[in-house]
Amino acid sequence: MLVPSLAVAQGAVLTTEHARAELLAHAPAGVAPGKPVWLALALQHQPHWHSYWRNPGDSGLPTTLSWQLGGAAVAGDIAWPTPQAIQVGPLINYGYEGALLLPVPLTIPAGFRASELRVKLQAEWLVCRDVCVPESGEFALTIPTRKPTSLHAKRFEAALAHVPTEPPSLQGRAAIERRALRVEVDGLPSALRGRELRFFAEAAGVVEHAAPVEQQWQAARWVARVPLSPQRSES
């Protein structure tokens, strides 16, 4: 069941019945070309409510962020933290409960000399429990450029620590094999060997999310057969 909802924030914080949303900034060396500058939408879900990953799974919609930035700054893509698998009846969705931070890197152009960076964000997210509620907000924030902005450093560090990274030694292969995607991965951290792993497909509409995944370790190689979705079309 889908219930329409719209909320507008005049500043950097918005609270609804289902979540608290906030626009945050992290610029530990100030705002300047070549320096790390991050923005983020922070969501604190009410208990038992969740929002969605870039691939929501069997249902849902991913959170979207649209930016208006001063000084010709450019926003990158969301650095999505690893989601959790959320079972809703017979469905498996991918998303987040509790506290969530969606970091976005900024590129500051050469020659940037402004004393502040003005940020506007139009965000849309879907929160679900027994029903799904589409929510949205307009946020605004002004970041001083000549001094550090690091009040939320630990929150950004924690979120970025949960963004998937590719070890230099990682090698993966995938092929269609009898209505399944056969995946082989070498070079995973030794701490994972012998453990049962979960496979997440970034592209929607490819695999059957709720179907069991056959998996095994062949020495240091992880091998899995992930059932393909019978509803595949473009994918």
Describe this structure in words.
The two termini are 27 Å apart. It is built from 1 helix and 15 strands, in the order βββββββββββαββββ. The longest helix has 9 residues, at 153-161. The radius of gyration is 20 Å and the shape is globular. The strands form 4 sheets. A 5-stranded antiparallel sheet has the order 1-2-3-9-6. It is mainly beta.
Looking at this protein, list some descriptive labels.
mainly beta, disordered N terminus, 1 helix, 4-stranded antiparallel sheet, 235 residues
How is this fold's topology laid out?
Layout lengths: L12 E3 L3 E8 L11 E8 L4 E8 L6 E6 L4 E2 L8 E5 L2 E7 L1 E9 L8 E13 L3 E13 L8 H9 L9 E6 L3 E7 L27 E5 L2 E7 L8
Antiparallel strand pairs: 1-2, 2-3, 3-9, 4-8, 5-10, 6-9, 7-8, 10-11, 12-13, 13-15, 14-15
Question: Concise description?
Answer:
The chain is mainly beta and 235 residues long. It has one helix at 153-161; strands at residues 13-15, 19-26, 38-45, 50-57, 64-69, 74-75, 84-88, 91-97, 99-107, 116-128, 132-144, 171-176, 180-186, 214-218, 221-227.
